[in-house]
Specification:
The chain is of the alpha/beta class and 372 residues long. Helices cover 30% and strands 22% of the residues.
């Protein structure tokens, strides 16, 4: 663990760059806004910790605001959160292979761990190793509600699958989960909401079939930040796996439907060159490239002082600006909004928590690089 006391209290412009910045007023607003929604809607929150790579401080913020537990994508993220004192987690992914399953059942000895399952051979191996370890692993059958990624087909196929899970010692059937990720960027909010509700209705129909067949279903889990309002409006969905709302990014902002949440994540960069050549009077080169900010979903916007990023190689950015309105010299700082929070947060070892422009805390990112 690195010690960052010397950075606490600094103005953000005193930081070495590139630096990952977090507006804590915006983060706290976002957490409260989602918690208030869930309380009023009568639905549980199980926020997705992949967005912040299992950094426990954010998990505890969400739990203290009413979340019932956390969702993760990776077994390693669950291990990190468990080491940070988190006891109730869902791995919303398949845990496959003897080495990973051994880690899973060891984790089940001291946490309430649940895992997504869609393959009977995998389920059987988890069952066998859980029995050997003397533990119970919670099982959610992942149902394909149209995302066409992982998942058992809905209705009868899921019923047949769940019956076999119930026969496996060491597994504790907890319910179902599904994800409508294929609808996140559907054009037209009304169409997006309609199709999301239809997808989760398939999940509820499947749940009802299991219940009619005598199989209790405690949990029906799903959704994400983009479509959480649509999912929560479908009667029978019990919990939301929302993640990106805590930080937001300009992609989600531009996609619509999340206007009450604030973008909080940015990157501070430094002007390292003002080329002295023809037609370069409006050009500044920054010390931030695509290795320091994910640009899969597009180039970042300039938060301050203005201008436009129009090119981003590996270690540089080209910033075009109006020299009549903006004056930039070598050594000046430029702040960019993050366009993809998931992809960018994972690139840094630490994040600077800001209150206004002052560093309030510096948090290591323990899940950074943990991909197993």
């Amino acid at each position: 663990m690195n010690i960052h006391e010397y950075e606490v209290g600094l103005h953000k412009n005193e930081l070495d760059t590139p630096a990952l910045l977090l507006d804590m007023d915006a983060v706290e607003h976002n957490i409260k806004t989602m918690a208030d929604f869930a309380k009023n809607a009568g639905i549980n929150l199980r926020p997705h910790a992949k967005i912040y790579k299992a950094t426990p401080v954010f998990a505890w913020m969400q739990l203290r605001s009413g979340a019932i537990g956390l969702t993760v994508s990776k077994l390693s993220e669950a291990e990190i959160l468990a080491n940070g004192g988190i006891q109730d987690m869902l791995i919303a992914n398949q845990v496959v292979g003897a080495r990973k399953i051994q880690r899973l059942v060891n984790l089940a000895a001291w946490t309430r761990i649940k895992v997504a399952i869609d393959n009977l051979e995998n389920a059987s191996e988890i069952s066998r190793m859980a029995v050997q370890r003397g533990v119970k692993v919670g099982a959610l059958v992942e149902v394909n509600i149209g995302n066409d990624r992982c998942g058992v087909e809905p209705h009868q196929a899921t019923l047949d699958f769940a019956r076999k899970i119930l026969e496996m010692p060491g597994l504790e059937f907890k319910g179902l989960m599904g994800y409508d990720g294929h609808l996140v960027f559907v054009q037209g909010m009304d169409e997006r909401i309609k199709r999301s509700r239809q997808a989760y209705q398939v999940l509820i129909e499947t749940k009802d079939l299991l219940i009619k067949s005598g199989i209790p279903v405690e949990i029906v889990s799903g959704s994400g930040s983009a479509m959480y309002k649509a999912a929560s409006s479908v009667k029978g969905v019990t919990e939301l796996q929302v993640g990106s709302y805590i930080f937001m990014d300009t992609t989600y902002r531009d996609n619509g439907g999340l206007e009450e949440y604030r973008c909080s994540l940015s990157i501070l960069a430094t002007v390292i060159s003002r080329p002295d050549r023809a037609n370069a009077r409006n050009l500044a080169i920054l010390d931030l490239g695509r290795k320091g900010i994910d640009n899969t979903l597009g180039l970042p916007e300039v938060k301050y002082p203005g201008g436009e990023i129009f090119s981003m190689p590996q270690e540089h950015s080209r910033l075009r600006f109006d020299p009549e309105k903006i004056h930039l010299n070598v050594g000046d700082k430029v702040e960019l909004w993050v366009r993809d929070a998931n992809g960018t947060f994972n690139l840094y070892d630490k994040v600077y928590a800001l209150r206004g422009d002052i560093v309030e805390a510096v948090w290591d990112i323990p899940g950074r690089g943990q991909v197993t």
